[in-house]
Amino acid sequence: METSNYSLSFTTGGLFLNEALTLAGLYLDTDDWLFVQKTALRDNLFQSRTLTTLKKLCNVNISRLKMLQKNELEFMLSCCRQEQAYMLWIAICRRYSFIAEFAVEVLRENFFTGKPDLTFDDFEMFFSRKSQWHPELDAIRSSTKKKLRQVLFRILREADLITKDNKIQPALLSPEFIRIIRQGNAGEFAYFPLF
Predict the structure, then answer these.
(1) Is residue 7 part of a domain?
(2) Strand partners, 167
(3) Is the pTM of this model over 0.85?
(4) Residue 149 sits in which domain range?
């Protein structure tokens, strides 16, 4: 069985909700991601100290937002803050299969089996299992693996899927959010801790 390599370029930062909302709004006004990127860089929309950081922030956010359909972006700009974070979580799961698989196989599984929290050991076991099918994971330095774990847990906290002390929080989805997801891929409900 052949597997494709994981994209592990999520080590930059966290959820970036405010930045994502800014870029999504610009995109919906123009329907042009290249224009969005050029504008963000020209106007330093994120008030970055260096051009390198600004480029990295733009690239990470735009690559995630491109995972969302236009109706999902429109919904993200109009819904409550919590569901904006949930929509961005879906974009992140679509963008990074490593995170999507962690969400389904660890976050949701722990929730289903009544395990109240996520631990670093959960991450280590998941990483070890995945490295059997993804040899690129074996090539990662321990410092990079630690950074991947740190950023993943930060994203989960900022999306309000776990608490500061790593307790799993059930997702509370509105009927409108549920409708939007069902229009796309109902299987993506598996990214959330919910029954």
Answers:
(1) no
(2) 117
(3) yes
(4) 80-195
